Amino acid sequence: MRPRCTLPAVNRPANAGALDVRDPRLQEHPLLGTPRRDTIVTLLLAAVTTTIFVLMANHGSRDVLQRMDDAFVRRMVSIRTGWLTVIAKFFNVLGLVYVTLPVRLAIAGFLALRRRWWHFAAFVSAIVLSEVSIGTLKSLYDRARPAGSLVHTSGGSFPSGHAVAASVTAVAAVIALFPEEKGRYVWGTVAVAFSLVMGLSRAYLLAHWLSDAVAGVLLGTSLALGTALVVHAIRERTTARAGHQAREYRAHL
Asked: I need a labelling partner for 213 at 20 to 30 A (CA). Which of 67, 121, 144, 169 fits?
């Protein structure tokens, strides 16, 4: 009896497990664990974000928002204390480019080193879109800032650049670094809390109106989720096409 050849290439075709080992793209955790739920959440956030931007563009509704902003400013001034001001100024520093840029580069570099190219694409796309949006929207709305800011400010007030940068970076980082499990929900909660506190700190310092901060948090979060949603869809389509081609190839062997 002749000995049986045990070479894998001879006795069995390549399978999905083998592809997982060879193709680093297939080792990445999914950007979205439950795409249908995440799509609904993203669309709802986008709708709320669009609403506040439309309201700010309309003269009548903008006057209503301004009265609410004025009332919030008076409230922030009435509760101002030394320790709250220190915390708010600390968050002001966290939102400066000298802090956000190294953090963003570190995350992008980590994803590149680990060859998580889909997550890299989603993270970098969210950051780039947010930076383009901030300057464009500030110029478009050209809203004056509140008087008496406790920190240095420049440019238009709406939306808050600090709030956009904080929320898009934090949320996009959680999506890129943590798979769909308990860790993502914990860090996701931290990211949302950080974004909200950043927004409130801008209003407390009178660097922005409250509506500026709210719009910034909503915009940054929407961009992070939206880019993840788009990249996830592209990845699923690309992976399905690659699997279909692999099955056709094996069928012709």
From this structure: 121
Count of domains in the chain?
A: 1
Residues near 120 by beta carbon (within 8 Å), at least 6 away in sequence: 108, 111, 112, 176
Inter-residue contact 56 to 218 (CB < 8 Å): no
CATH code of the domain covering residue 42: 1.20.144
Task: Tell me if 11 is assigned to some domain.
Answer: no
- Residue pLDDT, tens place only, 102-152: 999 999 999 999 999 999 999 999 999 999 999 999 999 999 999 999 999
Q: Decide if 21 is inside a domain.
A: no
